[in-house]
Amino acid sequence: MSGRVAIVGGGHNGLVAAALLARSGRDVVLLEARPELGGLAATRELIPGHRVDAGSNDLGMFRRSVMEELELGGHGLELIEAPAVAAVPATADSSAVVLWPEVAPTVEGLGEVSRRDAAAWPGFVFELAERAAALEPLLSRPLELADMGRLLIAPELLRALSSPLEESLRERFENPSLLAALCGVALPATGLGPRANGTGWPLLFHCALGGSDRLAPVVRARGGAGALASALAASAAASGAGIRTGAVVSRILVDSGRVAGVRLADGERIEARAVISTATPSVTFLDLIGAPLLEPRSVRRLLNVKYRGAAARLALSLDGLPAFRGLERPALTGRIVLAEEPDDIERAADAAKYRRLPARPWIEAALPTALDPTLAPAGRHLLLATVHHLPFDLEGGWAAGGPELLARVAAELERWAPGIGGLVREHAVLLPTDYEADYGATAGGLHHGEMNPSQSLWLRPTASAWAGEPLPIHGLWLGGAGCHPGGGLTGLPGMIAAVSLLRG
Amino acid sequence: MPAMPRRAPQGTQAVQRALALLRSFTTEAPEHRLSELAAAHGLHPSTAHRLLGVLEAEGLIGRSPDSQAYRWLPGAPGAGDAGSAPRHNGLRPLEPLRTPFHRRTSALCESDAWRDWSGYTCVETYEPTPEREYWAVRNAAALIDVSPLFKYEISGADAERLLDRVMTRDFSKCRPGRVMYTSWCNEEGHLLQDGNVQRLSRERFLVSAAEPCLRWFQDCGWSMDVDVGDVSEEIGVLALQGPRARAIAEAATTGIDFGAMRYFDLAAGEIGSGAGGGPVTVTRTGYTGDLGYEFWVAAEHAEALWDALVEAGQDHGLLPAGLLGLDMARAEAGLVLIDVDYVSAAHAEIEVLKVTPAEAGLGFTVKLDKQADFVGRRALELERDRGPAWAMVGLEVDWFELERLWSEIDLRPQVVGQSASREPTPVFAPGGWQVGQCTTRFFSPLLKKYIGLATVRGEAADPGTELDVEVAVGYGRRRARARVVERPFFNPPRKTAVAPTPGVKG
Asked: Which helix (H) or strand (E) holds A108?
């Protein structure tokens, strides 16, 4: 048997694992089903002449040490830090709120909407940074038993991560737009409304990996998120990794409880001594390995994983910058949160619970061309409107629900940026069903398993174990967002898989 | 719920049933569905429907507008709270379940000795003591209602595959028309349950189990082409056990060649001597170690089956037997009982209580040479190499030793005429430390011996090994010398003989 490592999935995690292992001299072959690399962080020409990010495009949480180790700069990756973190435009009743990475400009802006909130902001950022710093070591390597103790002796941290986010925020702040902005940063792709317990966790997670003493900034790759995948692939290839696109893995081959390789949909068999799967736990175990090879309790555990957190993305090609009320151009470079108050998000989550569309969807918008004009033809702007908190199993189905959702999104955009409808030239849509069909995101959940405390840290699969037990198949490692530390453009699951495999 | 009066005067039965139904409606429980009322009162749904119709027409109860449930009408004369039913000050006992034979068994249960078995009300002994019922098993025939067993129908193209995945035995070798006794384990090879599996056809099996395990089968069969259905409440089960069982079974059914039925065969036939009596499946199985059959019948034909067997049994000394008599017979047969002789790994509170099939005396059900990978296989392979830590053994307590211990308090041994004790007591190396526990023990009326089932350390398990077992002597606890003996204690040739001559003891 060869010492080859086969990696299932060419998303950023699979690519990180491939590059790190190849650099350590391992014989690596990476297999990506789609024609392009990057998975949920791919950039596609969904609108002719436009570079549209299919999923995540914020590299703020991506591990800098991995970038350096893999010399991604030398392989063509150029980072652009957005001046703004998040902004909520003004409405008829409220002024705009903009959050910046540095404390001072945010305080200055907040002073105009709430003196109390402005005064509370520096303390909030300091406390968040402190808690994030306590959490960060637990997220960036395989968990150890001692880590559990670290968490248990930090009651404030435990309280913050297990509480409802809105409740925690209201302990300091009062302005609805500010609260909405922070919820808009924390809750995308979680499936949880801000009043749900455990929603403190995603904000801490985000800040632990994306911040330091500042509020975690938005960082983009020039050319779109796909540029990260390209740089990773170039780095991996330079170290000798084999990278194949259009290679659909249909089976992880197991022989006497040991990984033997993978089989592709066209019948080709690839021998491997180890397999790193970046597919969701459900796809990896139930589809690629098969329930009959698993212990019944593993099957039960897999069936119990929650994959809520479906989203839809509408990409619009615009004739110019849309006029979001009260926001200047620099404020448009980060997340644009289209929710007046946390309850707008809560109501969307409520509707999703009952398998309905939100009456008024809340939208996480981005204008990547505000930072990087090369993403669209000259004179055009690209607006990515992501609608979160959608039910995957929509009542009546997505064939009928898709057009209805688009109509509601269009109405919302028009409300926040009057006249935007007249700027639209072309559009493209990705629905929750597309995310599952195109990217293997089980139930359309972008994080490969809902990001809440009940599915995080020790409760999430790790590269080599789950629920305190080694993975049931020898030679199998998990390296996708479904395992520790979780979803988002971090590179960490892939890195931890590679490190765990090298340690043996 | 008041028990049905045993012997009602002619013509008053319907009145009594209607009043009992009416008393079910109280302010605490104002609404009932037809099916639950029928089950609670042991009535056939059509009978319950007829009686409720009269009560409704008389304005004593109503129908809920949104559902098909019957409702209490506030102020209606005679309804539960105002009636003569005892008041419970708001406390209501949990309604026990009734087996499909309940009307028959309750009419005969003179002792009023009932016991809960998986939520069902079951007869412990029909007479004040179990002796006659026990002797019927050994010398004539006994009829035992074992309907509370959980029953699961497993069907589909992958039915055999699922059973081979769950069970330790090899179901590729179980032909349609056969029954297999098997164990099933968790991932660590620890015993979950033991039970019988009937192969009804190539793609259809019926599993009987002492405890619920639907979800376990479903999880084990996830993604397989198989249906797992809980048919526990749809099927009544009667065990007919004893040397006269075949003669009675032949007279009570048609369409089955009992002479050709081997031990652990199954056959389908009809109830009664003519056609149209209702279908019944008969397995040559039982929990007594004697000649015997078990009858599996749809609940709606249960009473017809009971009546046919009782009628056929009149000339053969057939008696209905309760669970105490059954327990004595199964102990003589050396058959282990879940939650008495071993604890299911599904609810063992501590690790040390969990046992492997071999440790529970069921090693013969583990087929490590079978093709299929079954749950617990790897752990059991390791155990095979290492040897089981515990063994299930038979113990025979020295009678003279018992007499000596009791004589010290001027009594003769007070052990005769008692049912089997289930209180675990320690077993020691002679004069030494504890090597295990004795979980079932009693004085066998047939063998005239004080015997027991015990789990002991592997090194103390060889037949002939002398051990001390703790026995109660008056108020004291003493150690009595016992010897490890082979199980079963009693194993008559008639149990497995093909075409035995009816009436002749084996």
From this structure: helix A103-110
